[in-house]
Design brief:
Number of helices: 2
Radius of gyration: 51 Å
Distance between the termini: 136 Å
Largest sheet: 4 strands, antiparallel
Structural class: mainly beta
Number of strands: 23
Mean pLDDT: 89
Order of helices and strands: EEEEEEEEEEEEEEEEEEEEEHHEE
């Protein structure tokens, strides 16, 4: 700043460029004429406002989950008497007190993210601002995308399940628990896929859980896989009964062709004894075959329903 005298007028003017020594006490000393005459005064120079990030570097450009508290963003200021804020997401507020700006809170929306904010200092000297951004990430989601009911299916052991799929948002992966041996889960490109062929029924029904990893929030999906064991068929009669030798009653066949009273009487008297003897001769087989045509007879029992193609075979020789 400078001083000037002209035409009996003293003028002090200019722009102070330093605050060092403020307040400045000045004196104007007149020269010439009679006497020693002075005038005094003072000029106080206030520094320009300043604002400086004082929280951890990067907090003024952070990413947070929706409804989760941000890491507080703080600035130290000089010169200002307050501050105004713009661009902050709903749920986040700014405050100025004792030369410190604090931005805090939990954003409740992702609409408009990323949010570019501005802090404008008020009072003091100069138009001084600070800017930053807050990116709000939505909560993870998971939704069944395969056919309804595939998340609660029943399958035969060792047969492939109908693939179970879920679409996800936000997550960067997934973990799986409760799946039967032979069935696995995978996450890729925001799709969960559960597939495979269960190899055991122990523990069925299997209640599984898919837990999303990464992103925001603790989000899971659950379901069940019920396993049906393979059909079985086991001989429960005496061993060897599935490969029997039976006999045709020769005496009864003879009676069909020979109509002699004596033979009829003989047959009538000895029919029971003859059948017992024949049965004894054939190993106590009680059923008498009525034909030998096609002997030996190979038979097959095919189970229907249930799981698997299961059969039992045997033979009957007449």
């Amino acid at each position: 700043m400078t001083g000037n005298w002209a035409a009996n007028v003293v003028t002090i003017s200019g722009s102070p460029s330093t605050t060092v020594g403020s307040p400045f006490s000045y004196t104007v000393n007149l020269t010439g004429g009679c006497g020693t005459v002075t005038a005094t005064g003072s000029i106080t120079v206030t520094p320009a406002n300043t604002i400086t990030l004082s929280s951890v570097a990067g907090t003024d450009g952070q990413t947070v989950c929706i409804n989760s508290p941000i890491t507080n963003i703080t600035y130290t200021t000089t010169g200002a008497t307050g501050a105004t804020f713009s661009g902050l997401p709903t749920g986040v507020t700014g405050n100025w007190a004792a030369n410190v700006v604090t931005i805090s809170g939990s954003p409740s929306t992702t609409v408009g993210s990323p949010f570019s904010y501005t802090v404008n200092l008020t009072g003091g000297c100069g138009t001084v601002t600070a800017t930053g951004s807050i990116t709000v990430t939505p909560a993870n989601t998971i939704a069944l995308s395969s056919v309804a009911g595939t998340d609660a299916q029943t399958v035969c052991i060792s047969s492939p399940i109908t693939n179970i799929t879920y679409t996800t948002t936000g997550a960067t992966g997934a973990t799986f628990s409760g799946l039967p041996t032979g069935v696995t889960g995978n996450w890729a490109a925001n799709v969960v896929t559960i597939s495979g062929s269960p190899s055991t029924t122990v523990g069925s029904p299997f209640s599984y859980t898919v837990n999303l990893a990464g992103g925001c929030g603790t989000v899971a999906a659950t379901g069940s896989i019920t396993l049906t064991p393979a059909n079985t068929i086991t001989l429960s009669s005496v061993a060897g009964t599935d490969a029997r030798r039976l006999y045709v009653s020769a005496l009864r066949l003879l009676m069909l062709h020979i109509q002699l009273p004596a033979l009829q009487a003989l047959h009538s008297q000895s029919a029971n004894r003859s059948d017992r003897q024949l049965g004894s001769q054939c190993g106590d087989n009680k059923r008498i075959s009525s034909t030998t045509v096609g002997s030996p007879f190979s038979y097959t029992v095919n189970l229907t329903g249930g799981c698997g193609t299961v059969t039992a075979t045997g033979s009957i020789t007449a």
